[in-house]
Amino acid sequence: MQKNPDGEPLPEAALKDPRQLYDHMRAICPAAHSDGVVTLFRHADVIAAAKDFATFSSAVSAHRQVPNSLDPPEHDVFRAIVDRFFTPERMRALEPKVRQCARDIIAALPMHTVVDAVRQLGYPFAVHVQTRWLGWRGIEETLLAWMAENHAATRSGDPSRTAAVASAFDRITADQIERRRALGDAAACDPTTELMRTRVDGELLSDADIVSILRNWTAGDLGSIAAAIGVVAHFLATHREVQQALREDSSHLTLAIDEMLRMDDPFISNRRVVTAATDIAGARLDPGARVYLNWTSANRDEAVFGDPDAYQPAENAPHNLVYGIGPHICPGRPLATLELVAATQTLLQLTSSIELATEVEPERETWPVGGWRHVPVRLRAAIAR
Ligand code: HEM
């Protein structure tokens, strides 16, 4: 039986939707100890820890991850490299391809029958956009198979299986690097090639760092985009008035999507390790203590948002933590937003309604992945498609 962070068996409702457990823990135990890790649940505590990188270090894993596991000042150098790939100009140039991917995938979905918004829309859309962006076209099926195995390995909790899946991904990435190296100057100018030509202090990035950067752009984020599409589809299907309003005017779609993800943040948490004794959320943490920043919970904190399930895009935007805060705030947010807006807008344009299917229940993902595993919907076609 699964346990909550205090060691009590989890109530049935919390097993179905972990957000209920987080809402409960935030009220009774904002710094919960479980298996040697402390989870911070409140908005203010999560922000404090995320900003205090000197006390809450990101160097949590045995392996170097660029830029995720680095702390400032080393982090700043690599973060500047990463940020260059997500500028407004780059996003504008990429937008037509992202919209084309959305149109191709959504136009091919069957209408008036059960469609899984996560598996049939979220996964393929995330993979096709990433391969077009990075210049990896042709390996979509490999990446989709890898995503499925990655999810299964994560859920199995078997370290040898997760290690195997991680090295399988490294091989996919290393293959892309080798192909470009073999082509030399003839290699297409895409972000992968560009990374291979990037220098730090006059030295080219090491292959290990290039693989790590690419892994953080793909391995983790394909899943986040797919899960986010599931959250948005579920919200639209269960909030018909919002769906209708967005059909009539989609100019505030970015705010709307950010708010849907705030209520049901699929990117649950990130880890930190304490470097010096500190007090937070009424708990004393010693050096070496492991900490989870629970974004999903912080995004539902009543102290900041009032009713966590009240849809208030404009009011809640300044406090939204879906993309994190502090030095590690998500650099991929512009791309994530571009993808989610393009997919949602296209879905609204090519349909006249999105309803939850009545034949199959939606199924939530399980920790450490948030959001939905399956969102069965029925799409009704817009006029001639
Ligand atoms: C809905 C989609 C996404 C969500 C919810 C999300 C959320 C987050 C969050 C909360 C963090 C902070 C991590 C921390 O503080 O330790 C983060 C970091 C990061 N994200 Fe995202 N992300 C998304 C999409 C993307 C995409 C599309 C990319 C790139 C293609 C990306 C690349 C990264 C990287 C590289 C970091 C680490 C930054 C650093 O350590 O400085 N993310 N993301």
Can you tell me about this structure?
The structure is a single chain. With 385 residues, the protein is an alpha+beta fold. The chain has a domain at 67-264 and 323-381: Cytochrome p450, CATH 1.10.630. The chain has 16 helices and 14 strands. It has helices spanning 12-16, 18-28, 43-51, 74-83, 88-107, 117-134, 140-156, 159-183, 191-196, 207-238, 240-248, 253-263, 295-298, 302-305, 313-316, 333-349, and strands spanning 31-34, 37-40, 56-57, 114-116, 199-200, 203-204, 269-274, 278-280, 283-285, 290-294, 351-356, 363-364, 372-374, 376-381. The strands form five sheets. It has a five-stranded mixed sheet with strand order 1-2-10-7-3. The longest helix has 32 residues, at 207-238. The radius of gyration is 21 Å and the shape is globular. The protein starts with 11 loop residues before the first helix and ends with a strand. Mean pLDDT is 93; it is low at 1-9. Bound molecules: protoporphyrin IX containing FE. Protoporphyrin IX containing FE (HEM) is lined by residues 50, 58, 67-68, 79, 82, 216-217, 221, 224-225, 228, 267, 270, 295, 322-324, 328, 330-332, 335-336. Residues 50, 58, 67-68, 79, 82, 216-217, 221, 224-225, 228, 267, 270, 295, 322-324, 328, 330-332, 335-336 line the site of protoporphyrin IX containing FE.
